[in-house]
Design goal:
Elements (H helix, E strand, L loop, with lengths): L16 E2 L1 H8 L3 H9 L6 E2 L5 E4 H8 L11
Antiparallel strand pairs: 1-3, 2-3
Helix pairs in contact: 1-2, 1-3
């Protein structure tokens, strides 16, 4: 389970989904960092049919505010 979970698939607003490039821009990092966060379990991607990997941008933005090695604060 990722440190920053996405909303349930049925609760997602498609306007809040973006590509890895959009996620990187929102977080202020490079796309490679988004991949690292995903591989380390900080975030997860949203898989919707044939659209490929998308990211829930508000979740990525929240994850970007936590310093490395720190636990996220309860919401």
């Amino acid at each position: 389970m990722p440190a920053f979970s996405n909303p349930d698939i049925y609760d997602l607003d498609y306007r809040h989904l973006g590509t890895i490039w959009e996620a990187a821009r929102i977080a202020g990092v490079k796309p490679g960092t988004i991949r690292v966060w995903e591989s380390r379990g900080k975030i997860e991607r949203v898989q919707i049919d044939h659209r490929g990997a998308l990211y829930h941008l508000p979740t990525v933005e929240r994850a970007s505010k936590v310093k490395p090695g720190r636990r996220p604060k309860a919401a």
